[in-house]
Amino acid sequence: MKFLADFFPILLFFIAYQAYDIYVATAVAIASSFLQVAFYWITRHRVEKMHLVTLGLLVVFGGLTLLLRDPLFIKWKPTVVNWLFGIVFLGSHFLGQKTMIERMMSHTIELPTGIWFRLNIGWALFFIASGLLNLYVAFNFPEETWVNFKLFGMLGLTLLFIVLQAFYMARHIQDQNPTQEEP
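Structure (tokenized):
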């Protein structure tokens, strides 16, 4: 359910684009992102940092798209978001005791420190590559292709990466309750 809620603004952006154009879709994305943040605040009395960062960048880049009537700005937004996440994941290697991925997941699973390090680097590289791929599609294909890629391509790549990471983690999960052999 949370996964779908996270993609709520992107889905509405896609639907509005199919029905109208990039400008209406951008306005819908901004409004739905505000609704998403408000919903989390009302229901949980807190807002996830990812949603606030996304909302802030959407207001800036989407606002510029609407104000200047230039879709270039909204096309850059996914890249900037991905690169910021990539920088945060890389930066977590130098700040604090744990990497970003370990901070997010260590309460659920236990892995050796080296595995957390590799997973974190993997996520950082994934975000950086996703940003580059977004720019490639945005500047080398028609707008409609970019919109489809933004929803289906990025979502598909993210899900595939999560599955691959899960298989990798499964090989290294440390058993917290090892069974004792009988003498």
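The two ends are 47 Å apart (CA to CA). The mean pLDDT is 89.
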